[in-house]
Specification:
With 504 residues, the protein is α/β, with parallel strands linked by helices. The chain has 19 helices and 18 strands.
Length: 504
Amino acid sequence: MAHTTFYPREHYSAADTKYSLLPFRFERRNSGDCLLTNEVGEFHVLPSSEFDTFIHHQLQVNAPSYVQLKAKHFLSDGSSSAHFELLASKYRTKKSFLEGFTKLHIFVTTLRCNQSCPYCQVSRQNESVSAFDTTEEMLHRSVDLMLTGPAPAVTMEFQGGEPMLNFDLLREAIKYTKERNANVGKHIEYVVCTNLSLLEDRHLDFFKEHGIQISTSLDGPDYVHDKNRPLGKGTSHAVVTRNILRAQEALGKHIISALMTTTRASLKYPREIVDEYLRLDLGSMFVRDLNPFGFAVKARSALSYPTSDFLRFYKEILNHVIDINRQGRTFSEAFTTMVLAKILTPWPIGFVDLQSPSGAGIGVVVYNYDGDVYASDESRMLAEMGQRPFRLGNVLEDSYGDIFFGEAMQMIAPASCNESLAGCSDCVYQTYCGADPVRHYSTQGDIFGHRPTSSYCAKNMGVIRHIFGLLDTADADLDRIFWAWINREDVNRMRLPEPEWLSS
């Protein structure tokens, strides 16, 4: 066992220098330089020789990097009393997503579904089996719990199964929520996750009336989508693409979004998948890997792939997307955009998978069809496989305090902060990543996980490292594209001065 020495505070501030090292992480890269990051998300790149000079307290005050390292909180020379106040302010801003506690509330109105996707993560049930529908009583109690929470703004998301198979209950949920919220005053956004195969004009009218957003799945052109997402004996691709266009015309293009799930069948067609999104005039795509839950576990031998194959696929997609933007058409990849926002801005993002503490229970909660409450959609999926360590309680049996501060949440919390997890705490990419106790429990049998063998870790590290590589070599055009994605602007209207700090 390696012996660890903890040096006294004086070790980090040599007697012959006027600056102290502040906490940071670093990685010596194959390019011969060093990437430095810190807890507030600041980063800096130093040549290896200059890095050695810096950590040995030999960097001269007149060196160009001295001012930058000081401004980014990698060193302190005591010249300003406001230095640590500013650092604290940045840290509070990065963690401000914790204000208000749980903001994403997912309602599973039914497990029934009319599709039979081999990678289904929730072990959906046949569409004729009504026993897997929630009841009005459980729905009302779930809404009451959502409105009890301290968050002034929440997202109410409907999932399944296929929620449109229980449309009457979805309508009742919106009606009841608005009636109850009249006395509470929360800002509520509504999202329906649907395969769009059952879309009717009455649904569109209802969505338009209540400002409901649509999230759907599109795995690519028909020869990919239909293989991944069968619909009876017909083609689901023709149905979903037709209804995407209908929804865009009725509600506006910004109201509907789509994501794809990567299976082994997807890996051969990165450009074709992107081009299908472009053909339908969708503004972005989300490249999602295969989750280890539900039917996907049983079909692993036919669907899965090494993480290295996913990363190669992701990079090919991203290169194609960047080329499209260079040609003047705005189109973004959502996961890349969120990582860029974490790297380049001081603001937190709403994506619970890239948060520390983890979003499980803290950022998101799921009310299942049977009234059981879970810490995340993935933990609900795990429960459908017979494993329920992340069950927080039941809406008919437990109070708000019992659910959100009970034994299950007490178990989840220590594994949710990557700042203190082995393998994460000293990783240079820690501040841009998250923690996923549910996935690690599923794949490794332990909520803390083992990072050297974690597919979650390998994927996120590979993606973030690649994005830093792009930033290292970015020209003004690519800077403009990335900032357009972050700010949700048209690349043709985005005008930026040359950002000197990006290349520093």
